[in-house]
Predict the structure.
Amino acid sequence: MGLTVLRQSSAQCPIDVLFVLDHSGSISDNDEGAFPNWLYITDMVAEVVRTTARYPDVRYAAISYGTKAEVEFNLDRYTETREIVIAYRAIRNSGGNTNTTGALRLSRTAVWSSLANRPNAFDVLVLVTDGIASERYEAAGLLPEANRVKALGVRLIGIGVTTAVDADLMRRIVSQPASENYFGLANFAQLSSIVESLAQCITRTPTTSTTSSPTPSISTSTTTISTRSTTTRRPSACRQPADVVIVLDASGGRMDFSQFSAVRRFLVEMLTQLRFFIESGAVRVGMVRFADNAVYSFNLNTYLTDFAAIIDAVQTAGYIGGGTNTGLGTSTQ
């Protein structure tokens, strides 16, 4: 369990906010009266955007999901309040199942890891749902995926509407303490009543948080990468600078191309957690691939603080195949 200390945001503290909106079939199936439930959702989001407009530097993004999750717009798409409100109101209630796990994963891979997410911003995800994740769409993976998102330093706020929501699970999914990050509502009409409280949650940003996260790992015949971290939100500096060299097995051995691609994806996730340190110059990154021979992908001084270039180089690093000369790979660091 983490400890979070809150303070009011200021002009020096930009905030990046992602609304993850459930548009599964139950939203419209359970319409309560004169107004569609989906309209209550988009009205609430629009009012939150208007309310936070008095703060100097808040940006918004949107993911909607049913059976499939989609990025409706990213954090750098709109900057004017009116544009953001229109964009949220334009999102359609398309029905489908409830793939909450997929939506949170998409937030991690397409929003929080994107260049649209400012490295000096506090990150806030607001999940709005009216039910539980569909069993056939990775329901068992929901809590682990939420933990991966929070491990990036994201404050996860949950809004559960109707008694169909598993409130106990939602309290485990959101950032702690749950009393400050979970809103449980009996019906959609109540969404309007939490606008001011939600806006305060979004703009009261954590200065310190300690979060223990699961250890992601990928293992092949000769490549084992693992990390476990205790994250302090947006630290101002590293205690000491560090040079990180990735020695990547690109041989044919027991690793096929799909496994190699999985390792590359993991490296992108790992480096994303170091983004602040890379862009501040506290951490330099280099990479060597090896099979029969070692091949430099890039050196420690190739990209320096250019995080985007480092990510691009990792994502495009080629699979070599052939033998596995691990000793040669490690000796070229």
About this structure: The chain has two domains: 4-209, 217-331.
